[in-house]
Amino acid sequence: MAQVKMQTARSTEKEPVAAAEDLMKQLGSITPKLVMMFASRERDQSALNRAVRERLPKGCRLVGATTAGELDNTGIHSGSVVLGALYGDFDVGVGLGTGLSLDAVSAGGNAIKKACEELGVRQADLDPRKYVGLVIDDGFRYKKEELLLGILEKNQTLVLVGGGASDDNRDISKQSSQLHVDGEVATDAVLVALFRTNAPFAALRSHWYIPTGERMTITKVDETHTRALEIDGKPAAQRYADLLGCQPSELEFGTPKGFAVRPTALRVGREYFIRAPWKPILEDNSILFANLLEEGSELELMKIGDMAGMTKSFFTEELPRRVHNPQAVLLFHCGGRMWYASATGKVPELAETLRSAPTAAGMNVHFEIYSGFHINTTLTVLAFGSN
After folding, report:
1. What residues contact residue 242 under an 8 Å CB cut-off, 6+ apart?
2. Could you tell me the CA-to-CA distances from 4 to 207, 233, 242, 333, 382 in Å, in that order?
3. Cα separation of 11 and 246, whole Å?
4. Of all residues in the chain, what percent carry a pLDDT higher than 70?
5. What are phi and psi of 225, to 5 degrees?
6. How far apart are CA 368 and CA 366, in angstroms?
7. Are residues 300 and 340 in the same domain?
């Protein structure tokens, strides 16, 4: 029998050594192979890393990031540190790629190369039935699509899941994020944790939207490929507002009538990958997206469903169908989902759904990664089970 299990711990202690002692006490006598650490941004990350690293078993890997909120089975928290200590039948290789803002393709390529070297496997030989990659990037560099090109350059079949390290500071000018890789704390970087296991596993995603069958075509973009200038041959913001029956000024993500209620999705086979617009630029009637846009691409309009109900169904129905006897789930929860849940008073209901999940640890992220795509407004998950 092969299995991967996880023990979690959470601390609100502010002083790094006190937090580390509290966390280690909660983990008890297990001997983890990998510890995921999700820490609130305002903490001294270097001191916290050092304190936790010193208390972990020799050979145990430490990987993690700063957050816009920490998740476990008891709910969605802020200002804390959550650990997910994984143990069982798996090996893990870890790679860090730096210089993300200068050359994201190379950063991604270097990260997966190092992870593969640690496992003694060629990138081209990564069998998706035995290997899966967890990816965390410095979310505020907005380089997910480029770094994914680097990670997947030599093997497009590798399944990837994860999200962007984040910050709960709402002041855009002050936001920053950091990554933890063993004893190193880095920024402007991407990490890959490459798992090899015979235990059941799956990369999954959950959103609370329903397809409508209505489609739009991005007919003109700007030179950065992040702003839609025209949709269906018309000024983008006005066209989107007309489809939703509102004014362009009401479109911004998080507003009651806007993008969070009726986002766009890229359909891939039977899957819908949410790629919601971010904000309208009223000066020129364009729309800013978080992901890269291509002229001629077709997107489908979605509509919002039951936020808490669909999330609970994911944990209780879909996840057990996909992963036999699920034991551990790593959660990468979109900060935009959290923002909209807060605006609509749904956070308590959403947090309650985590009690229905297998043993869980994770964070609110700055945009998500799933199956090689940069997506948003989604919960992405790496789940492990036993056979």
Report:
1. none
2. 25, 51, 50, 22, 12
3. 44
4. 100
5. 60, 25
6. 7
7. no
Say yes or no: 321 and 277 in one domain: no
Point out which residues pair with 84 in neighbouring strands. 8, 36
Domain boundary among 304, 335, 363: 304
Query: In sequence order, what are the beta bridge partners of 311?
Result: none
- Give the CA diameter of the chain: 63
376, HSE (Cβ side, Cα atoms, 13 Å): 24
Q: Final residue of a domain: which of 252, 281, 304?
A: 304
Instruction: Please measure the distance between the N-terminal and C-terminal CA atoms of the chain and give it in whole angstroms.
Output: 6
Are 154 and 161 within 8 A, CB to CB?
no
Residue 262 domain boundaries: 209-304
Number of separate helices (H) and strands (E) present in the chain: 9, 26
* pTM (two decimals): 0.96
Per the prediction, the chain carries an average pLDDT of 96
Same domain, 201 and 213: no
Over residues 96-111, the pLDDT tens digits come to: 999 999 999 999 999 9
The arithmetic mean of pLDDT across residues 201-220, rounded, is 96
**For residue 265, what are its two tokens?**
């999705």
Cα distance between residue 365 and residue 337, in whole Å: 10
Domains in the chain, number: 2
Q: Does residue 159 have a pLDDT over 90?
A: yes
Calculate the dihedral angle through the C-alpha atoms of 148, 151, 157, 163, rounding to the nearest 10 degrees: -50
Per DSSP (E only), the strands in 275-338 are 277-281, 286-289, 298-304, 328-334
Beta strands 179-181; 61-67: pairing state = antiparallel
Does 173 lie in the same domain as 61?
Answer: yes
Please provide the size of the chain in residues.
Answer: 387
Q: What per-residue confidence (pLDDT) applies to 169?
A: 86
Is a pLDDT exceeding 90 seen at residue 371? no
What is the mean predicted confidence (pLDDT) over 54-80? Answer: 97
